[in-house]
Design brief:
The protein is α/β, with parallel strands linked by helices. The chain contains 9 helices and 8 strands. Bound molecules: zinc ion (2 copies). One zinc ion binds next to loops. The site of one zinc ion has 4 residues, from loops.
Amino acid sequence: MIDSHCHIAGPEFAGDLIAVIERARAAGLAHALVILAADDESEVEQGRAVAAAWDAVRFSIGIHPHAAGKFAADPAAAAQVVDARIGAQPLARALGEIGLDYHYDFAPREVQQQVFGEQIRLARRRRLPVVIHTREADEDTFRILGEESAREVGGVFHCFTGDRAMARRALDIGFHISLAGIVTFPRALELKEVAKLVPIDRLLIETDSPFLAPVPYRGKRNEPAHVVRVAETIAELRGTDAQSIGDAARRNFERLFNP
Ligand SMILES: [Zn+2]
Ligand SMILES: [Zn+2]
């Protein structure tokens, strides 16, 4: 198994990080991609503790669209902050999460777009894949990915919640699709269809811990060990077993993030 996206360097895990990592190991996780917010000093610091406790960890570092407003006066500075953080973290293997979030609109959309574009340019300079967060912003997300030639580096649409048409667009530009615990929710019928159509060599699985705990842990803090539930659900939908989903996701992780 792998967890392609988790936030275990966040404050929710400060108190019991070692126990969380032990449970992840016991669940058979071979790799985890831990997201670090480049503008969050305490998260970056806790990331060092995560790396010290779990050698299977690799990092993705970026400025989340929610935080883009901090760089309204100088969007290029967002990429400079990320560049410095990546330079200081030898286990960085991706740039993100980056993208657009028009659901919350915590930052003006124009600023989100500029900060997103600057970071894709940085990813190309550094030859790192990108981890995309997009919510209610499909058209602008694909437009900017195209304008900035993101397919040169590729990456993943994390916590994918789009429909089959959007999944095909993401696949058409060479990206991977990562499914989170939402796929276990009974009413996520369209997402279950997406889970059936993603080619096995483009599929990733994630928890997005501490968010989005899968059934039967809904409403509780999520953690990487629960990625097994995501794999089990996808396996049921595809008529296979959880181990083969986990194995495929692991191979895809290794090819994309070069751990
Ligand atoms: Zn996200
Ligand atoms: Zn996330």
